[in-house]
Amino acid sequence: MAKSKLEYIWLDGSAPTQGMRSKTKIAKDFSGKLEDCPMWSFDGSSTGQAEGGSSDCLLKPVAIFPDPGRRNAFLVMTEVLNADGTPHATNGRATINDDDNDFWFGFEQEYFLWDMETNKPFGFPANGYPRPQGPYYCSVGAANAYGREVIEEHLDLCIDAGLNIEGINAEVAAGQWEFQIFAKGAAEAGDQIWVARYLLERTAEKYGLAINWHCKPVSGDWNGSGMHANFSNSLLREAGSKEVYDKVCSAFGKSPEVIKAHIDVYGADNHLRLTGLHETQSIDKFSYGVSDRGASIRIPIATVENGWKGWLEDRRPNSAADPYKVAAQIIATVKTAEVMVAAS
């Protein structure tokens, strides 16, 4: 009788930034299909998601991938439900309004490899700082690129797991890297980002390193870490009109309340990163522009050259943001813009 390891992954109740938890279920003669993954449960009182007197929370499988890092194993992304089967308050996936998967998302996930001994980015000297940023972006060679073996192993694991990872690169600061994930369907994009994050954490763990998802772990003249959200739906992919793009972009800055609704789910401490420097717009301002990496929302030049048919990039989400919540808020705002376009 064959046995498989099913690694159930979920998001905990940590605040202001949720963390990942996981545990292994052994299944006999498992088919490898999502529909054959049973519902499971965990002690929510140990993850900040329930009281001890009524601590059971449910794990509902929502996506499954082969686990290339373990024998006879699968990675099972789950969402957390209350004991009665309703979405838990920490369940951002349940807030996504994209039943027809019309929304496509490409997330650019930045992060720092973190040296646990020095409590600094991997590649920073124990005392002081490395050379100023500049030579590290898309770098090669031991003088500029730190931890490539971790990044390459993670890339291979993501590919072997069937994630739609589209690329990697060294980022602007020493020890800072990025990977990109694309999916058709907001929930699926979120699932894949979280599984890729999980694989990265586990890979770095093997090397005695941590992953620092904080948006500004090093103060001073160093770039923060973002999770730029590239998005489109049928309206944007087929618009063929600058006016449509202006209406959609304007909807994101329609009022202070709308701007706040986005910033509230774009990651903790984002004021440290969104300063107006280092390719960001200030957190208290909203702007959009063609090919403008200092704007809140960038209109890619490829969209313009394609006759205003393409996508937009929201540059405000930070590296620790929950992609489910980011996608849900973007979808809600685009849908309000669709109403304005239809009425015009």
Automatic annotation (TrEMBL):
Key words, A-Z: ATP-binding, Cytoplasm, Ligase, Nucleotide-binding
Listed Pfam families: Gln-synt_C, Gln-synt_N
Catalytic activity: L-glutamate + NH4(+) + ATP = L-glutamine + ADP + phosphate + H(+)
Highest taxon, organism lineage: Bacteria
UniProt keyword annotation of Repressor present: no
Signal peptide from the UniProt entry: none
GO molecular function: ATP binding; glutamine synthetase activity
Entry EC no(s): 6.3.1.2
Gene Ontology terms describing biological process: glutamine biosynthetic process
Domain GS catalytic: 87-344
Compartment list: Cytoplasm
Boundaries of every GS beta-grasp domain copy: 4-85
Chief place where the protein resides: cytoplasm
GO cellular component: cytoplasm
Similarity comment: family membership: Belongs to the glutamine synthetase family.
Cited PANTHER family: GLUTAMINE SYNTHETASE, GLUTAMINE SYNTHETASE 2 CYTOPLASMIC
Description of how the protein assembles with itself and partners: Homooctamer and homotetramer.
Function description: Catalyzes the ATP-dependent biosynthesis of glutamine from glutamate and ammonia.
Annotated protein name in UniProt: Glutamine synthetase
